[in-house]
Amino acid sequence: MMHMTFYWGKKVTILFDSWKTDSWTSYLLSLLACFLVSVFYQYMEDRRLRFKLLSAKTQKSPSGSADLNSPLLFSKFTSRGGKWASRFAGAILFGVDSAIGYLLMLAIMSFNAGVFIAVVVGLAIGYLVFRCGDEDVVVVVDNSCACS
User: Fold this and answer.
1) How many beta carbons lie within 10 A of that of residue 49, not counting itself?
2) Is residue 141 part of a domain?
3) What is the pTM of this model?
4) Structural domain of residue 77, as residue ranges?
C-alpha cells in the first residue's frame, strides 16, 4: 500500500521495489544515501553552471585564456568545432543533473518524512558548500526553473 500523506516510520520503499527498508539500520543508510545524492546534485549543478560560464567566456574571447583556468575542459574545445563540442558537453551535464533532480523528486514522493528531510537538508548543505558564492555564475542563468 502506497502512502499518499507524509508518515514517519522505518518501513519505506524508495524509487525501486528492491530498495525497501525494514530495519533502523537500512532506513538510516537510505537516508544517508538520499542526503549524499542531494549534496551531489548541488555539486553537479555548480559544475554545469560554471561550465556554461566558461564556455560563454571562451566563445567571446577565443584567445585561449580560459585554457589556463580549466585545461581539462577546453583543451579540445578551442578548435574550429569548439562551440558545438561545448554545447554538447553542456547538454550532457544538463541531462545528468536533470536525471538526478527527478530521481530526488521521486524519492520524496515516497511521502516518508525522513526521506523528505534528508533530501531538503542535503540540498541546503550542498547549496551552502558548493553554490553559495555563485555571484559570477548567476549572470549566465537564464531560467530558474529546475527542469529547464
Assistant:
1) 21
2) no
3) 0.74
4) 12-61+71-131
- 9, three cell numbers: 516510520
Element (H, E) at 72: helix 71-74
Assess if residue 4 is contained within a domain.
no
Q: Is 50 strand, coil or helix?
A: helix
Q: CA-to-CA distance for 87 and 84, rounded, in angstroms?
A: 5
Grid cell, residue 7, equals: 508518515
Contacts of 4 (CB under 8 A, 6+ apart): 111
Flag whether 139 is in a domain. no
CA dihedral (59, 62, 66, 72) positive or negative:
positive
How many separate domains does the chain show? 1
Amino acid at 57: K
Please check whether residue 142 lies inside any domain of the structure. no
Numbers of helices and strands, H then E, in the chain: 5, 2
**pLDDT grade, residue 67 (50/70/90)?**
very low
